[in-house]
Design brief:
The chain is α/β, with parallel strands linked by helices and about 325 residues long. The chain is built from ten helices and twelve strands.
C-alpha cells in the first residue's frame, strides 16, 4: 500500500470476491485497479472451479459476471472495470457486453491467442500443435498437485495420468469387508488385502507390464511400469518445495515437521519439472518432450485451426494480432 501500486485480483465468482473484499481488499479500495473474472470452464491453466460446480457443464459467463458487478456495486465499486478472461476469441462475439449498463466497464483479456505469435517464447513444436487442435482437445483435469482443476492439451502426458487412476483398486492392511484377498506389495511383498474382483484386474494389469503397486493417500493402489515407478519416486525425492503444500510430495511450509500429514500421491505429478520442460523444450525431440509434459491452454485453443486468420500456417506478430483483434475478429 505504501508504494501506491494498483492490484488486479483474479476471481471466478461473485462469492469469492465478496469474501476477499471483506477479508482484505476493503483496506486498499483506492488501489483496486480492476477485477479479473477468470472463467473456470474456459480459461487456460489452473482454474478456480469450486466443489459445487460441475466441470462437465460450463455455465454462461454473463450471469456470473453480472452477479460479480452487483456485488461490487454493493461496495461502491460502480466504475471499477471487470476484466473478462477465458473464452475470448473475437470481440464481435461479446458485443452485448460492451457499453452494457448492467455490467458497467468491461475489459477483455486475451490469454490463449498470444501463444501463437512470432514473439511468443513457447517452443515451436507447441505452436505447431496449437494449429492442429480440434474441439475438445483441451479440457479440464484434476491431476495437478495444487488440488485445482487445470485446462491443458490432451496429450500422452494427461492420458498416462488418466490411465494411472484407472488402474486403481482399494486395499486394507487387514481383512475388512470385501477386502479379504491377500496381495503382496513391493519387493518385500508386504501383505495387504483386496477385493476378489479387483485381484482379477490386478493380475490383468500385471500381465501388461504394470507390475509396480504404489500406495495413494486414499488407501488405494495404482499400478504402473517399473520405469514409471522409478520416475515418480525420483521426482518426489527431488521436490524443491515450490508449493506451500503439494499433493505429489508430502512437503509443507509449516513447521516443525514441514509435512502436510498425507502420503505423497503418485496419481499427480511434479508441477515444477513439468512446466519447466514445456517452457524450455528445444531441438529435434521437442515434439516428443511436449507430448509428455503439461501444455496449458484455454478451451478455445482449437479455434486456431478454424480461424481463417491463421490459414496456411500464418503466425502473426503481436502487432498484427492486436490489429486483428481491433477489427472485432
Amino acid at each position: 500500500m505504501r508504494f501506491g501500486v494498483h492490484y488486479y485480483p483474479i476471481v471466478s465468482s461473485a462469492r469469492a470476491f465478496n469474501a476477499l473484499w471483506k477479508r482484505s481488499y476493503n483496506k486498499a479500495a483506492d488501489l483496486l485497479g480492476g477485477v479479473v473474472y477468470e472463467d473456470p470452464w474456459r480459461a487456460g491453466g489452473h482454474n478456480g472451479l469450486s466443489n459445487t460446480e460441475d466441470p462437465l457443464n460450463p455455465e454462461d459467463p454473463y450471469p456470473r459476471v453480472l452477479a460479480l458487478r452487483q456485488t461490487m456495486r454493493g461496495f461502491g465499486l460502480h466504475e471499477t472495470p471487470i476484466i473478462m478472461a477465458g473464452g475470448v476469441w473475437w470481440l464481435e462475439e461479446w458485443q452485448d457486453w460492451i457499453d452494457n449498463p448492467e455490467l458497467g466497464p468491461i475489459v477483455f483479456q486475451f490469454g490463449t491467442r498470444p501463444l501463437l505469435t512470432r514473439e511468443s517464447p513457447i517452443p515451436q513444436a507447441w505452436k505447431e500443435r496449437l494449429m492442429t487442435l480440434k474441439k475438445g482437445d483441451v479440457h479440464l483435469n484434476r491431476f495437478s498437485p495444487t488440488g485445482f482443476y487445470s485446462s491443458a492439451v490432451n496429450n500422452s502426458f494427461l492420458r498416462d495420468l488418466q490411465a494411472r487412476s484407472e488402474r486403481q483398486v482399494a486395499f486394507s492392511t487387514e481383512p475388512l469387508g470385501v477386502l479379504t484377498v491377500p496381495y503382496g506389495v513391493g519387493a518385500r511383498k508386504r501383505q495387504v488385502f483386496l477385493a476378489a474382483e479387483d485381484l482379477a484386474h490386478v493380475q490383468e494389469w500385471e500381465s501388461q507390464g504394470f507390475v509396480e503397486a504404489m500406495r495413494t493417500p486414499d488407501s488405494t493402489l495404482i499400478f504402473v511400469t517399473p520405469d514409471s515407478a522409478r520416475e515418480i519416486l525420483a521426482d518426489q525425492a527431488d521436490c524443491m518445495g515450490c508449493l506451500s503444500e503439494c499433493r505429489f510430495s508430502n512437503w509443507s511450509q509449516r513447521a516443525p515437521d514441514y509435512s502436510n500429514g498425507h502420503k505423497a500421491d503418485p496419481r499427480s505429478f511434479c508441477i515444477q519439472k513439468t512446466l519447466q520442460a514445456a517452457a524450455h523444450a528445444s531441438g529435434p525431440d521437442q515434439d516428443k518432450v511436449l507430448d509428455n509434459t503439461l501444455m496449458f491452454g484455454g478451451t478455445n485453443a482449437w479455434r486456431f485451426a478454424a480461424d481463417p486468420f491463421y490459414s496456411n500456417g500464418f503466425v502473426p506478430t503481436v502487432g498484427q494480432l492486436v490489429e486483428r483483434i481491433l477489427t472485432g475478429r
